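Consider this pair:
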Amino acid sequence: MKLNTLPIIICCCFSIFSFSQTEISDPHMKWTNGWTSFEPNLQDYPEPEEILPNLIETDSYLRNDVVYLMSGNVYVANDATLTIQEGTIIRCDKENPTSLIITKGSKLIANGTKTSPIIFTSNSAPRSRKPGDWGGIIIAGSGKINSPSTSKVLEGNFLPQYSSYGGDLNNESTAEMSFVRIEFAGKKIDKSKELNGLSLYALGKKSIINNIMISYSADDSFECFGGSVDMHNLISYKAKDDDFDFTLGYKAELNNIMAIRHPYISDVSGSYAIETDGYDKKEGYVNPSSLSHVNIRNASLINLSDQKNYQHTVAAISSKNLARLEITESKISGFANIIQFDKSYQSYHDIEKCFLLENSIFNVHNTPVLLSFEFKIQTDRLLKYNMYTNNFKSVKDLFTDPLNKKHPKFSIKDPKSYTVTH
C-alpha cells in the first residue's frame, strides 16, 4: 500500500521552534480527569424520579438528589433563571422530541464540579443509547451577529414566541456552564434545520462556557451562531457531523479544545473537526470587520485512523465565506488534509490574511492545504514554524495511548523526530 507523503522542507535553525518544549500545555490531558466519560453507553444511570415541566417561567432550581426526565421541549422563558446543582442527572426522552431551550432574556446556571459533573443523557438503557436519542441544549442570547438582520430565529421546530436571538449586547451573560456532559444528543431535521449537542446563539462576552464534554452527537457537537463568548476545556467525542462549528460573525478565543473523530463516523455532507463560516451566504454580512474570527490555542484535532481506514477521512478544517481562523500550539492528526478553503478565498493574500497555523504538529496523508481556485500557489510558507511527519502515521504510532477506552492520551511519542517547516 502506498501512502501520499509530504515534501521534506529542510530547516537549518530548530531553536526558534518550541513545540518540543511545550508539547501542548497539558499533554496527558489532566484537565479531563474526574468529570469526563469516554464510555457513556456503559454508564448505569439512575432512573428518573421527576418530570420537568415544558415551560419554566419562574426561577427554578434542580437538585442533585433527584434524577430528572426531560420529555418534550423544555422552555426556560419570561426572563427566568434555571439553576442546576452540581452532580445533577437529567435523562432525556427518546420517544418524545426533547431539547432544553434557554430563551432570549432567560438564563442557565449549570455549574458542576470536577468530582460532580452535571449530566444530560439519553433515557435509554446502557448499551442501547444512540446518537440523536434527544435534541440538545439551545441557548439564545442577545449578543451580536453579523447578519444585516440583528435578530434571527433559532434552527429547529420550536415555538415562534420562544425562538428569537441576537441583539447588540456584546457583554451580555446568558449562560454559566462548567463541568457538564452532554451525551447522545443532536439531530438533523433537514438541510436547513439541525439540532446540535450544544447550540450557542449570540452569547455575549460575560457568559461562561468551559469544561464541557459532548459525546456521540448525531449532528455538530458545538455550534456558535455569532456572539463573542470565550471558551476553554471543550471535548467533542465521536460526533457524526462537525465537532466545532462557527458562523454568523462569531469572534472569540478558545483554549484547550479536543475533537476525537472516527474515520467511519461522518455525515453524508462531509464532517470536519472545525468548520468556520465568515457569514451566512444567503443573507450577506454587515461589513468586512464583522466576519467570523476565531483564535484557538491548544487544540487536539484527532482522527483515530490507521493504514486500513485512513482513506475515509477528509480535511480536519473547512473554512468558508472568508472566515478567519488562527491556531497555535496544537495537534492535527489522522486526516487527509489540514484545511480546505472554499471559493471565497480568491488568492494567496486572502488565505494568508484569514488563516494561521503556528507552533503546531500535523500528520496528514494528502496535500496539507486544499484550494478551490484554479491557479496554483505555494502553500509551504503558509505552514511555516510547524512540525510534520514525513510519512503518514497511524494513531497508535503517533500517540502514547490514544485508544484507551477509559482515558485516552494524545501526547506525542517522540516530538523531536519530525521535520520542521521554516
Q: What stands out?
A: The radius of gyration is 21 Å. The longest strand covers residues 251-261. The domain at 19-420 is CATH 2.160.20 (Pectate Lyase C-like).
